[in-house]
## 1
Amino acid sequence: MNTLPANEISDLKRKLKKLKKLKYVIIDGTERPIRRPTDKDL
């Protein structure tokens, strides 16, 4: 499965028009916490 990098919606629409054979688009809106180093990691 190929993935597209994060894009603005208008940019994504333009890319999808170019991908004629594309059958499915999965938009992952899951928020993931940013792991920041702690004192013990340093």
## 2
Amino acid sequence: MKPLEINPTTVSAVSGLVPEPARITPVNPLSDSPAAAAFDEFSTALADRIYECATRIADHAGEVAAFAEIAAQADEANAADLKHIRSEVR
């Protein structure tokens, strides 16, 4: 049986397999405090970073799903080849 022939450079994310991450909107509990501006700046930067990480995770999940689909197709093709070879041997 031949090995699976998968070229990982051709794998790309399949749209729709992984939902788009939702953005986080921070709520400032310190609105009347002198620290409100600093809290807004920090929480907004943190929310942006979390969104960036979630987007990367979603992209990678899409790539993994696409790779799994290609592997499944290659496995099916190999199974068909093996079935054909077995029928010729008989």
